[in-house]
Design a protein that fits this description.
Strand order of the largest sheet: 6-5-4-7-8-9-10-11-12-13-14
Low-confidence stretches: 255-264
Shape: elongated
Number of helices: 6
Distance between the termini: 119 Å
Structural class: alpha/beta
Mean pLDDT: 78
Largest sheet: 11 strands, mixed
Strand content: 25-35%
Amino acid sequence: MSKQKNNIIKFKKRQNGLIALCIAIFLGIPVIFLLTCFHIDDIEVTGNIHYSEEQIKDYVLSNGYVDNTILLMIKNKLHPPKDIPFIAKLDIEYVDAHRITVTVYEKALAGCVEYMNRYVYFDQDGYVLEISLTKLSDTPCITGMSFSSMELYEKLPIDDKKRFKLILKLTQLISKYDLEIDAIRFTTEDEVVLNHEDIRIELGDGSKLEEQMEDLAQMLEGLKGRNGTLYLNDFDPATKRASFKLNTDSSAKDTDDGENPEAEEDGGTFSTEDNTTEGGTE
């Protein structure tokens, strides 16, 4: 009788082992299929400006689930990429077993200000989007101002409402007319100065920004390769003319009050109608 019971126990053990083996095989085949048949061979990146394609790929594939389309999609559904400097959102779409697309939505940066050895980037409404050690070459940096504090996603702490509106209007016009401005500076006399390559652009008190900025791109194109100061504070919208002075000393530095008499000579009057300079000396 005991021998018969031992045989039953052995049979049950074999049966349980067989069931476990079947379950392992049943579960293992999909896992093996998942790991071997969904290898990522191609990632298409669009919408990126401040980051290279390789940087976006490295970020998407970092922190596990590398080179697997299904696992990558699951990961990014549960834990989507976030807190990436200058990026609002990444959309990752499954194309096929070996290909995904990544659409990059970058933050709409209007300009930046310097604060505690960092660059504070803000949007066209004046809200702080990013505080970074990185200086972006295609975003104008505003100098000549000081701040006691700075908060992410809050408005720039500029007590002077008039200056705040002036900054927003200026950055909006730079974006509207697709101008390549390297820097924006407020002088000690509260006048606005822009820099584009070797051209210094004086705007005065900023009361005529719309008229000045409308023709600035054409002026800069006509002054390409020159080194000097464009005086838009005396710009005449009716004649489309403004004064321009050449720098005779390439090592001359701008001062806060904008005066450099020894470093400039008369470059004549610049006209946007035919992009020519009349009078003056070269």
